[in-house]
């Protein structure tokens, strides 16, 4: 099927029609816009997470999390012991946020800083820090958007009962959420329970290349513990139940007084068939069902996708009737972390294997569209149309739920020279293209409520350590002062937020061009 779409803003919309391959033509177009072109209540901000930005890993009663353990395993360069040291420099950072013009700052709370033993005693120093940060944000007119969990289960709970593999995590997570709602909910209106649940469950429990590094031979990366055939599904199941239970707590105990919103976050991408053959088109849909439908189907319909139930069989947990009622509709918004597109090829032969993991169950292989090595290259191919496609999918398939883009950004080599780091023109082009694409989707009816750049500062990155960073501000991690240096992208984003018209001009890459690029 060939479909050509051109709107009044001169955007090429390479739409995702349930992942049917489409082809568009080249156009040269110009589009001027600023943040005032978005709805009046649309929120623009920037993001971070606790372990990646705070530092002070061993100070004031904080105990290690699984993120600490991973960072000190040597798999990626550096660690988050100091990183951007926002724990000590939060006042300076809040001033920079206000000067930049952010509506909101999205950050996470370190569970093991607030409750060092994972349950029970609340650390007064942790409580003081988050109260101070939230108060500073509010005083400067920056909304605090808080994530409760960002891949950082307290190590003590991981050691005690294997964290999210066990249903015991649910009660401990809800008790932790209760403390956060009680202590900070008078000033925090936007809560996200879990960040990137799909990536945490897949990366942490199938291939084992991220915290808590659980997997089994022959599927993972040199893990010493785990079971790749079952644990991704157990972790995903308990993430959903922990989220839904915390959401129920908020609705029953806090909403009437605090009037806040609770959401859930997923990593999303545009899934493009490797060819326009039927098997690859179906594989692309199946891949999306496994990575996104895995969580969205229970949240919308109360059960896992049919293809997962069929392919995974009795290794996939089953919701009880009460759990289905608990999970279905248990969100006020969905947070989406979008960076790029992938190309998907059918691999149905994997279903003939007796021993299968999550990757074999979804029976597809995929790679980034630019064919970069995701651990040594730049997999963040600039594809704004992929964001449009993902949003269109959520609109058509999941009933157009309220969405906040929680992460979007481009990495750069942190070892480049100083001038190169500051003159990040490619990041400007990336952000400009994606915000322009987002505006197109909003005008086309997508129910998007906000957009957050990842990240405000250069920080310790989960998969790249200190080798690659995403920040609007450059930080030399070898500088004892950790001075914040504004990049060109910060200047651009600030101008956009302050209603300076920005222009997106030039040739829009089409799907055909992207395909040619990925195979060259």
TrEMBL record:
Molecular functions per Gene Ontology: beta-glucosidase activity
UniProt-listed SUPFAM superfamilies: (Trans)glycosidases (SSF51445)
Keywords: Hydrolase
Gene3D superfamilies hit by this protein: Glycosidases
Highest taxon above the source species: Eukaryota
Cross-referenced Pfam families: Glyco_hydro_1
GO annotation terms (biological process): carbohydrate metabolic process
Family per similarity comment: Belongs to the glycosyl hydrolase 1 family.
PANTHER family, per database record: BETA-GLUCOSIDASE 11, GLYCOSYL HYDROLASE
Name this protein carries in UniProt: Beta-glucosidase
Organism from which the protein derives: Saponaria officinalis
């Amino acid at each position: 099927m060939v479909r050509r779409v051109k709107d009044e803003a001169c955007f090429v919309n390479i739409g995702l029609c349930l992942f049917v391959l489409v082809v568009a033509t080249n156009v040269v177009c110009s589009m001027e816009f600023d943040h005032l072109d978005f709805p009046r209540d649309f929120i623009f901000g920037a993001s971070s997470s606790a372990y990646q930005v705070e530092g002070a890993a061993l100070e004031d009663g904080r105990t290690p999390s699984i993120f600490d353990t991973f960072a000190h395993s040597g798999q990626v360069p550096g660690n988050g012991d100091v990183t951007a040291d926002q724990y000590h420099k939060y006042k300076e950072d809040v001033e920079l946020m206000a000067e930049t013009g952010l509506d909101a700052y999205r950050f996470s709370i370190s569970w093991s800083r607030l409750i060092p033993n994972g349950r029970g005693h609340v650390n007064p120093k942790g409580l003081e820090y988050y109260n101070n940060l939230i108060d500073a944000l509010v005083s400067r007119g920056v909304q605090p958007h808080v994530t409760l969990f960002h891949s950082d289960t307290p190590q003590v709970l991981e050691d005690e009962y294997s964290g999210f593999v066990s249903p015991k995590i649910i009660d401990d997570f809800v008790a932790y959420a209760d403390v956060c709602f009680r202590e900070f909910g008078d000033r925090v209106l936007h809560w996200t329970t879990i960040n990137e649940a799909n990536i945490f469950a897949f990366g942490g429990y199938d291939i084992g290349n991220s915290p808590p590094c659980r997997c089994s031979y022959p599927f993972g990366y040199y893990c010493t513990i785990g079971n790749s055939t079952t644990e991704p599904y157990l972790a995903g199941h308990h993430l959903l139940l922990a989220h839904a239970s915390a959401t129920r707590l908020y609705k029953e105990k806090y909403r009437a007084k605090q009037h806040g919103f609770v959401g859930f976050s997923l990593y999303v991408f545009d899934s493009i068939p490797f060819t326009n053959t039927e098997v690859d088109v179906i594989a692309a849909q199946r891949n999306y069902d496994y990575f996104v439908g895995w969580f969205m189907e229970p949240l919308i319909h109360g059960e896992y996708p049919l293809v997962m139930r069929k392919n995974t069989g009795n290794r996939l947990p089953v919701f009880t009737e009460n759990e289905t009622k608990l999970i279905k509709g248990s969100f006020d918004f969905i947070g989406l972390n979008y960076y790029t597109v992938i190309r998907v090829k059918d691999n149905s032969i994997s279903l003939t294997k007796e021993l299968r993991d999550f990757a074999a169950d979804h029976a597809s292989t995929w790679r980034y569209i630019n064919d970069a090595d995701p651990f040594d290259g730049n997999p963040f191919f600039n594809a704004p149309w992929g964001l449009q496609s993902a949003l269109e999918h959520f609109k058509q398939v999941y009933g157009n739920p309220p969405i906040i883009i929680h992460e979007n950004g481009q990495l750069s080599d942190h070892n480049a020279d100083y001038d190169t780091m500051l003159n990040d023109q490619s990041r400007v082009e990336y952000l400009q293209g994606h915000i322009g694409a987002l505006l197109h989707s909003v005008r086309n009816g997508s129910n998007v409520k906000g957009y957050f750049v990842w990240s405000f500062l250069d920080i310790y990155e989960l998969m790249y350590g200190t080798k690659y960073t995403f920040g609007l501000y450059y930080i030399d991690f070898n500088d004892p002062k950790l001075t914040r240096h504004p990049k060109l992208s910060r200047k651009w984003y600030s101008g956009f937020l302050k209603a300076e018209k920005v222009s997106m001009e030039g040739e829009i890459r089409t799907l055909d061009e992207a395909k040619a690029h990925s195979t060259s």
